[in-house]
Amino acid sequence: MAEALRNLLDEVAVGQLGFHLARVLPGLDRHAFEAEARAGLHALELKARVQHLSAVLERHLQRVRADDFAAACDALEAALAPPGTVPWGEAPRGPADPAAGLAGWVVWPLTDWVARCGLHEPDRALDALHAMTQRFTAEWAVRPFIERHPERTWARLAAWCEDPSEHVRRLASEGSRPRLPWGRRLQGLIRDPAPTLPLLARLQDDPSAYVRRSVANHLNDISRDHPEQLLRWLQAHLPQAPAPRRALLRHASRTLIKAGHAQVLAAWGQGEPLAGRATLTLRPGAIALGEAVELRVGLQSQAGSAQPLVIDYAVHHVKADGRTSPKVFKGWTLTLAPGEARVLVRRHALRAISTRRHHPGWHRVTLQVNGQTLAEAGFELLTGG
């Protein structure tokens, strides 16, 4: 997967970049640009490739545009494909087409250049990001402007909430997320997310599901540091919400639901304890890394009415020092009928992944029903990695 991602910016992409830059920048030495861009590229991961290409771009722009940032932006915008001619997030892979222009992942180094070189001209830089985000997201590039020029940038983000392009409207939400993946954390917004809330209120009913998904992820970010803020948001915006907004708010609630936050569960009508019994069994009792255990959950209602239930489970992974660290996994959302008995089955595999090292030992598994731990079992992991 990592190999595939980094190859989104490969030698073909460098050729596309060189072709279109030479088309709009008289005096650019395309051969020298491409040779410098390809040098060492193969050994770099994706973000390092972005930074490398951005730095090469900066050096060559200096040679043909000196310190004229606005003129360099004019040229880069002229190199872009018309909006909508290439599916967003993709890139043409064939011969360079003068009519097509730049779009897709190859635009990321351009946005990175704007973020690094445009902080002294924020208005022109934000104009450039407005254009570029319609070909590939500028969500990472806008963040330095939020920190360095907050008043200007918040005013621009507010205006972008009404932009005709869904990509620009999404940028207002995605670019200001406190904990954006692959992006620098905005510590000021982690401490106080208030500046983003008016944007999210305007965008939560956006006609684009793409924009609404960003709002849900943004609210989920906020919930990690300010669960009370999400609870207030649910209390204000969940009652009588149309179906698309309910789906957005449900996705925004996922971290606190998995954590068993009682008030958030109650907001969704799932805060009452189970009236009945819950059991958990695992088999086999021991596995090697790469194998799976089967979770079998038994539910028996002792209630006279239907019970809405959120059922998750936590695997308490063994750490190198022998202590354990729980990770909650999404299980089932269901309604248990009066007196109903139900069995739920799920396979859970332990595989080697880049973000977690697995260690041998006894792994406890706990069952959460509407936020309450009602049963537990365990299995032995025989091999680590």
Structural commentary:
There is one protein chain. The chain is α+β, with helices and mostly antiparallel strands and 385 residues long. The protein contains 17 helices and eight strands. It has a five-stranded mixed β-sheet, with no helix packed on it. Strand 4 and strand 5 form a beta hairpin. Helix 6 packs antiparallel against helix 7 and helix 13 runs parallel beside helix 15. The longest helix has 20 residues, at 46-65. 36% of the residues are buried.
Question: How confident is the prediction overall: mean pLDDT?
Answer: 93
| Helix-residue proportion | 40-55%
Question: What radius of gyration results from the CA coordinates?
Answer: 25 Å
Biggest β-sheet strands, sense, barrel = 5 strands, mixed
Key features of this structure:
single chain; alpha+beta; DNA_alkylation; three-stranded antiparallel β-sheet; HEAT_type_2
Brief overview:
The chain has 385 residues and is an alpha+beta fold.
Topology:
Layout: H1 2-6, H2 11-24, H3 30-38, H4 46-65, H5 69-78, H6 108-117, H7 122-132, H8 143-148, H9 150-160, H10 166-174, H11 187-191, H12 197-203, H13 209-225, H14 227-237, H15 243-252, H16 254-258, H17 262-267, E1 276-283, E2 286-287, E3 292-301, E4 307-318, E5 324-336, E6 341-349, E7 361-369, E8 372-381
